[in-house]
Amino acid sequence: MGKAVLLPSEHDRLVREHALKLLRDGYSVQARLGGWFEAPTPIHGYRPDIYATKNGKQVVVEIAKGSVDWPKTSALERFSQENPHIEVRIISSDGTESLASDAKAAEQRQRFLIAIAKLLGVNPTKDSILSEALLCPPWLLNEIVEQIVHSDGSIHLSLIGFNRLMLNCRRPLASEHFFHWLFSNVSTVDAFERAVDTYRVHAMWTFGNFKFAYRQFATCSQAELEQLKAKVAQRTPELYQARSRFTEIAEIPENDLPLLGYLSSAQLDVLFFLDSIVGTVVSPNDLLAQVEKLPPTARTCITEALRKRDTSDLNNLRIEIHRETDALFERQETARQVGRQNTLRYLSIPYIDVYVATSMRDPEDFLSQHRFTNQVFENESLKDLNLRYFDPTLSYVDDRVTKGVIECLMLQRASVTLYNAGATDTMGKDSELAATLAQGKPVIVYVPEGTDKLDRRADTFRLDHPLGLQIDHDTGVAHGVLVARTPEKCAELLRGILLNTLDMRIRHEGGLYLLEEHTTGSVLRVVTDDALLTHTFWTYFRHHQDGNERDG
């Protein structure tokens, strides 16, 4: 791999300068600068540094760090030839600026070899596209490729020719069923690139290492290949549609939902405490004096509880408190009994499709969470699937430890976690997010629209959150989260996950291959192209799996 000439800090400085100059010149600007600008859309699997528009004119700017960026600049040159109305500027590491339209786009042979490099998971350079993998001398590679790729973009690829390439690139020979799955109908370089992209999505979804993925896919049996393909293949909805409707869980009146909470049902505790205070004083002035002696938090709660009450007659005040307490306690016990019964139902139903994770501390949390859950699962895109989901607002047990154990079980049984991020992070729901990813299961993070703060919070989960990328403990694959901004989008993504219809695309950025869900820009899988990190990670991961890891 070519050594970068520009340091990341110098590269980012140049991107900032060019982005701000375009902004000053009246352009609308997207730029790869963290949260300062909206990021540009990827082009042929690479996100350019800048995309700007003004009065119908479109400009793409790429600051090349050095030869390491050759595959990216090559893709932009090709894009420029495909879209001559868009100005694509390439600024080299020495500051020289050129138009991509003036460059000669990668020829058919180069495009074919770049696709082979992508299939193998190696980083191509302009001087030697397969340098990291190639065993044979360049003349032999040219001889093999000339028999496959023709100048008009057509190719004649046989299993024998493909395996000659694999042998000379340090890879095992591919099986006939693997070859026919991907390449049986391929007759052009365009079609070959699309087939490689299809394979790479499968490889990244299933494995965390392109070299290992190729070995598994290319050398397994026909039955094993079908199992691997099924992990990404679209599923029929009939499996879900054949179920009965999900009606086992009883509803609780919305206004009574907060009474299920260990923290949010504190209203009763305030009434009990207020009753005790009123019972120990002899006059209204004595009551006020006693309240003033309370600790600050207790004083605030009791003062608020007394604010709209007539304190001139203490006997009537106690009668009012008792009446209110009895009514509220009856409502609470009724709601909790339904919640206890629902918990038993959740424990006994045969499967849980979705675990809904959230933190409910205030009464409003219960109401907003319940409404959100209903908006998601009553959405038209999910109604026909008859999904079973764990709604924490309708479940209750009498102690928090048992509640924690039950929720751990629900989390383990569910296929997907739907995480309502709320305004702040909490240890409980963050742990549930991380635990789901560590089991190799998908997570949808819901951050509502509405404010700049929420926009930044959504970007944090999508790009920067420390728990937003976790390693599957069984496979070592790095799993990321899907970020949705509306209940409707949550429902759409849930359907896409369960039926394997998500639109997933691969791009390369910052030394990483990123498998993204296209409509949200959420990163679902990550593979590093750092050779040392790759070797070290998988060596120690498998060493640990084999039970050989020891202290010291």
Q: How would you describe this protein?
A:
Helix 7 crosses helix 8 and helix 11 (266-278) runs antiparallel to helix 14 (314-348). The protein contains 21 helices and 15 strands. It has helices spanning 8-24, 70-82, 108-120, 138-146, 159-168, 176-183, 189-206, 210-219, 222-230, 238-241, 266-278, 284-292, 296-306, 314-348, 363-377, 380-383, 400-413, 427-438, 452-464, 487-499, 531-545; strands at residues 28-31, 50-54, 57-63, 86-91, 97-99, 354-357, 389-390, 416-420, 443-446, 469-471, 478-480, 482-484, 504-509, 512-517, 522-528. It is α/β, with parallel strands linked by helices and 552 residues long. It has four domains: 8-102, Trna Endonuclease, Chain: A, domain 1; 108-230, no CATH class; 266-336, no CATH class; 342-545, Rossmann fold, CATH 3.40.50.450. The chain is elongated, with a radius of gyration of 30 Å.
Any descriptors?
single chain, 552 residues, alpha/beta, Trna Endonuclease, Chain: A, domain 1, 5-stranded mixed β-sheet, 5-stranded parallel β-sheet, 21 helices, 48% helix
Principal-axis shape equals elongated
Assembly context of the chains: single chain
Number of E-state strands = 15
User: What is the CATH architecture term of the largest domain?
Assistant: 3-Layer(aba) Sandwich
Biggest sheet details: 5 strands, mixed
Query: CATH topology of the largest domain, what is it called?
Result: Rossmann fold
Strand order of the largest sheet: 1-2-3-4-5
Number of helices: 21
CATH top level of the largest domain is Alpha Beta
Structural Rg:
30 Å
Domains (count): 4
Low-confidence stretches: none
What is the helical fraction, as a range of percent? Answer: 40-55%
Mean pLDDT: 89
Secondary structural class:
alpha/beta
Distance between the termini: 34 Å
Q: In what range is the share of β-strand residues?
A: 5-15%
